[in-house]
Amino acid sequence: MHKDNQPLIFEITKEGRVGYNLPELDVPEVDVASLLPQGVLREEEADLPEVSELDIMRHYTALSNRNHGVDTGFYPLGSCTMKYNPKINESVARFPGFANIHPLQDESSVQGAMELMYDLQEHLIEITGMDEVTLQPAAGAHGEWTALMMIRAFHEANGDTHRTKVIVPDSAHGTNPASATVAGFETITVKSDENGLVDLEDLRRVAGPDTAALMLTNPNTLGLFEESILELAEIIHGVGGKLYYDGANLNAVMSKARPGDMGFDCVHLNLHKTFTGPHGGGGPGSGPVGVKADLIPFLPSPVLVKEDDKYTFDYNRPQTIGRVKPFYGNFGINVRAYTYIRSMGPDGLKAVTEYAVLNANYMMRRLEEYFDLPYNRHCKHEFVLSGRRQKKLGVRTLDMAKRLLDFGYHPPTIYFPLNVEEGMMIEPTETESKETLDAFCDAMIQIAKEVEENPEIVQNAPHTTVINRLDETKAARQPVLRYKKA
Amino acid sequence: MKHRYLPMTEQDQKEMLDVIGISSIDELFSDIPEKVRFKGEYNIKPAKAESALLKELAQIAEKNADSKKHASFLGAGVYDHFKPIIVDHVISRSEFYTAYTPYQPEISQGELQAIFEFQTMICELTGMELANSSMYDGGTALAEAGNLAAGHTRRKKLVVSEAVHPEYIDVVKMYAKGQNVAVVTVPTKDGVTDLAKLEELVDEETAAVLVQYPNFFGQIEDLAKVEQITHDKKALFVVSANPLALGALTPPGKFGADITVGDAQPFGIAEAFGGPHCGFFAVSSKLMRKVPGRLVGETTDEEGRRGFVLTLQAREQHIRRDKATSNICSNQALNALAASVAMTALGKKGVKEMAIQNITKTHYAKQAFEKAGFVVPFQGAHFNEIVVKVNGSVTEANKALLEKGIIGGFDLGRVNSDLKNHVLIAVTEQRTKEEIDALVQEMGALYA
């Protein structure tokens, strides 16, 4: 891998080259200007590249070589569940009968797609312990907002218009408070106690007649199971609020505890995490929402229903919150998730969780001697270390993360959750072998030793990547967000 | 449990339990209270072997009528377009599709640069000053534009043309409800926004005017007039545009749009029953710090080499939490990559040529329908869609067309009671003269 500047596609363009072969224009040509009003025919062409097909393939191949994916190497990014993305999923999603169908076709001509969606919903209902599932939300945060809008509609339907507050723990994902705001709620933070769990006393203090909902991830972002989940549910239900499950960490509890049995009223899932839709460099995802019976009337419209062996979309939903997305959700990702669930089966999904949790606990025990472990108890699918000890020696968690790049690893999630100083959140997933976990732990241990013996090598990392640390301040102060010809 | 995705062996398991100091995996779940513990296994379908599963799913897929085997004249926001074959080859490179969001720039330069190029291409097409790295789809992008405008202007009313895609309007209303913003719709006249009514409805409380270009009926709105009416009241001018059309049409940026959004689906993205597609979001520079979602910016490393990073993150949920400009986290990065490859392959000349082909073939279809005696009620300029009036049920006709290998147009009666027995026909560059002639002939026979 060379360390020179990688040219932008705009920098290798040459007038007169083409990379396309359009269908033939087999109808009479017309003077398009004569068909358009004055000033509507574009005068100045959009300055897109002019390159050959090989130019394009070389360009993107070079870019791919400058990118780390799960198929490149270990990716223990906490809270992101970077497991293997099965190749069968990709093949199935590209079947013409799934990829090349239009959402507005007559329902009789897309019964196969609707059958798959319906069966996926049935599977997710069983997995979450909910009563109904919608596949409409496009991603996790979108699912959060969808469920909060349903909760809002539920309270409003009860004449309960003063429930303006959503409670989130201090360890919550940033999307939780952001979704609450977008749904028109005010966010109230509840503290964690010394064990890293929701502080029950603080929750009793903040919960009240103005509480719309509590949003909870279980296990939480520290990878710890909220043992008092039933008491938490009782407190929230006791004041008339709803309990919301953020499914980001579902990989930790499949076949072990279902949100529906823990007292949750609604849940969103990240099919691109637990159910192997690939992350795609940031998306697309899919964020189905499951609800208990009393929220069903408020589901986004349309709702997929099955009568005899025929599937239809029901638009006659008088209490629906409306539509959160055009059409029916990220179908292509849902096809991948369905393929995965069918590849694993019930025993497979159970093993997924058991091995994910075993892997995390194993790594935690191998590393606890070398880093601070703020919460020393069995974790679930991930755990959080603190770089406090190393910080005292002048090396920050960011430095250690960058040093891991030199070993060929993607670093853990760092500085999150916010309630751990110099946090490093490690999630191995079940698809990694013991050899991979050991090699990563060895690298971490070596870095811990380097911090003591040769801190500069860590402070100046990375050393082997195509580029060194980038000037983020410059990027934000003088934003250059597009290419412009010199 | 042996499974090809699970490398754990019995020996591994034993060694790992020893290090942890426990004797069974169950102990790791002892913190789950007995009362909520799930016993046994899920009651779901058993695992299926690779080849058997492929076969079963192929059979389910076969039940659907796809646009590979049929000639599709269905548009209404999702189109069967030419997709350069290389698109799938690039996005199938797993360095791209198995990567997470590029938060570690040193090992994510490929993705970051690809997004930077995407942002540039969207700016070029829309004529806007900057674009973000993608939104879920065109509908949510338009809805976020409405919310941005309400926040920016501190006004609580959006004025939306009824010639905007009806499902987009639904989503705009949903997002606006969350922010307690009112949505007022403007009726159409002759298939375009009624400008006199628009002028009546836009006032000092209006945060933004939202129109679509070309609009839901395929007609081309008078953006110059809409701009004037909008900016007279200091509201933001928001355009939802088909990016392919902008290969041939003057871009919204030239007409003074403050925000241009849309869906990049026409560029190399599968119809996929409505998703995932790829929203885009482009703005004038004064709105830079209000943009939702991720932005990639150029910078340098210590040795002066050019590199790219996620930037201006103080807008985003993971930093700003409840004060973020949006709750969006995951976006549509892989589809933005697909669109980039398609836009690159088509390039400067191809995007224009393809857009003009759409206008030309649609014009041919319009003339053919009129020659066959059909009424085409909206006679304004069109892009790749026209409305045709028929004397009977569109849905029933579409069932008959399907038998002939044709996926018919969109039944407008489904969304607008004034347009019962009207069909929205899309003619892309993919449709041949023969297919267009067959459609007109079959419809002629059906409605004779």
TrEMBL record, chain A:
Its cofactor is pyridoxal 5'-phosphate. SUPFAM superfamilies: PLP-dependent transferases. One of its GO terms (molecular function) is glycine dehydrogenase (decarboxylating) activity. It is an enzyme of class 1 (oxidoreductase). The modification N6-(pyridoxal phosphate)lysine is found at residue 273. Keywords: Oxidoreductase, Pyridoxal phosphate. Its EC number is 1.4.4.2. GO terms for cellular component: cytosol; glycine cleavage complex. Pfam families: GcvP2_C (PF21478), GDC-P (PF02347). Residues 34-304 form the Glycine cleavage system P-protein N-terminal domain. GO terms for biological process: glycine decarboxylation via glycine cleavage system. PANTHER family: GLYCINE DEHYDROGENASE (DECARBOXYLATING), MITOCHONDRIAL, GLYCINE DEHYDROGENASE, DECARBOXYLATING. The glycine cleavage system catalyzes the degradation of glycine. The P protein binds the alpha-amino group of glycine through its pyridoxal phosphate cofactor; CO(2) is released and the remaining methylamine moiety is then transferred to the lipoamide cofactor of the H protein. The glycine cleavage system is composed of four proteins: P, T, L and H. In this organism, the P 'protein' is a heterodimer of two subunits. This is Probable glycine dehydrogenase (decarboxylating) subunit 2. It comes from Psychrobacillus vulpis. The gene is gcvPB.
From TrEMBL, chain B:
Gene3D superfamilies: Aspartate Aminotransferase, domain 1, Type I PLP-dependent aspartate aminotransferase-like (Major domain). CDD domains: GDC-P (cd00613). Belongs to the GcvP family. N-terminal subunit subfamily. It catalyses: N(6)-[(R)-lipoyl]-L-lysyl-[glycine-cleavage complex H protein] + glycine + H(+) = N(6)-[(R)-S(8)-aminomethyldihydrolipoyl]-L-lysyl-[glycine-cleavage complex H protein] + CO2. Signal peptide: none annotated. This is Probable glycine dehydrogenase (decarboxylating) subunit 1. It is an enzyme of class 1 (oxidoreductase). GO terms for molecular function: glycine dehydrogenase (decarboxylating) activity. Keywords: Oxidoreductase. It comes from Psychrobacillus vulpis. The gene is gcvPA. Its EC number is 1.4.4.2. One of its GO terms (biological process) is glycine decarboxylation via glycine cleavage system. The glycine cleavage system is composed of four proteins: P, T, L and H. In this organism, the P 'protein' is a heterodimer of two subunits. SUPFAM superfamilies: PLP-dependent transferases. The glycine cleavage system catalyzes the degradation of glycine. The P protein binds the alpha-amino group of glycine through its pyridoxal phosphate cofactor; CO(2) is released and the remaining methylamine moiety is then transferred to the lipoamide cofactor of the H protein. Residues 3-442 form the Glycine cleavage system P-protein N-terminal domain.
